[in-house]
Amino acid sequence: MSRPPVEGGVAGLRTRLADWRRDGARIAFVPTMGNLHEGHMDLVRTAGERADRVVASIFVNPLQFGPGEDFAAYPRTLADDLDRLAGTCCDLVFAPTEAVMYPHGREGRTRVEVPGLSAILCGASRPGHFAGVTTVVAKLFHLVQPDLAVFGHKDYQQLAIIRRMVTDLDFPLQVTGVPTRREADGLAMSSRNRYLTPAERRIAPALYAALQQAAAGLRQGERDFVALQQAGMENIRSAGMAPEYFEVRRQDTLAPATAGDRNLVVLAASKLGRARLIDNVLVDLD
Ligand code: PAF
């Protein structure tokens, strides 16, 4: 099986895309930071089901890492990623260098920011993270000009922020979310799971278990959100993790849930050794 072609430059990318557009192709885009796992493959498959051509990007975006975060350590596995994409519906990989994406450097240049939504939950402990995400995603959208962009539910807040950006800036594309792919024990697949030691790996599924327990409570009619959140934090802590937040929110706005809300999401983040794990469960009460 042959690997998909790789473009590293903007001109080459635009030439290929122009050919496809001339043929009337509908183009789907899957932005990634590489180190692809089955969760990413679900995104690629969804893209392939909904479009004629699929472009994936692989770029470890420095703008979305804060000081002291894992930018240097983040796994860069381009050769393995291309092997994984071989024989799939991915037609092209855009794998730019930092110099291609940020030719004038990282500082003092245009940023795209979604206020409010970017400051809560993960944004509270990672200031600037989501502005880094929206800046790179906006730039990638301009470069690829897809009809459709596909993101995972695992980064649910990221998905909500990108939807808001697309609405506010009238990007002419549709955003599709794909359910989280999990390991057999429930742990959400993530490139950062590789930071876990074997002992931590055994603890990690407790995050999803706590989310499921809260979701079951909501489905059974529990509406004391504060009590559910406190219990979730305690469940994660007693499993041996250092929880950051455990919150019941509205799916659309990520505002705190109120008793009448029907479409909820329970979100959690927790430190475990070197890893910071995030996960969420959607709860639709209708
Ligand atoms: O979800 C990710 O992998 C990244 O945040 C994204 C969307 C590719 C932007 O760098």
Descriptive account of the structure:
- This protein is of the alpha/beta class.
- It has helices at 10-22, 38-50, 78-85, 98-101, 122-125, 129-144, 156-168, 198-203, 206-219, 225-238; strands at 6-7, 27-32, 53-58, 92-94, 148-152, 174-178, 242-250, 263-272, 275-284.
- The protein has 10 helices and 9 strands.
- Helix 6 crosses helix 7 and helix 9 packs antiparallel against helix 10 (225-238).
- The longest helix has 16 residues, at 129-144.
- The site of pantoate has 10 residues, from strand 2 and helix 6.
In short:
The chain has 286 residues and is of the alpha/beta class. The chain is 37% helix and 20% strand. The longest helix is centred in the middle third of the chain and has 16 residues, at 129-144.
- Low-pLDDT residue intervals, each spanning 5 or more residues: none
Beta-strand level of the residues, as a percent range? Answer: 15-25%
Total helices: the number is 10
Q: Give the number of DSSP strands.
A: 9
- Which ligands does the model contain, each kind named once? pantoate
CATH superfamily of the largest domain: HUPs
CATH architecture of the largest domain: 3-Layer(aba) Sandwich
Pattern of helices and strands = EHEHEHEHHHEHEHHHEEE
The structure class reads alpha/beta
Strand order of the largest sheet: 1-4-3-2-5-6
Average pLDDT for all residues? 98
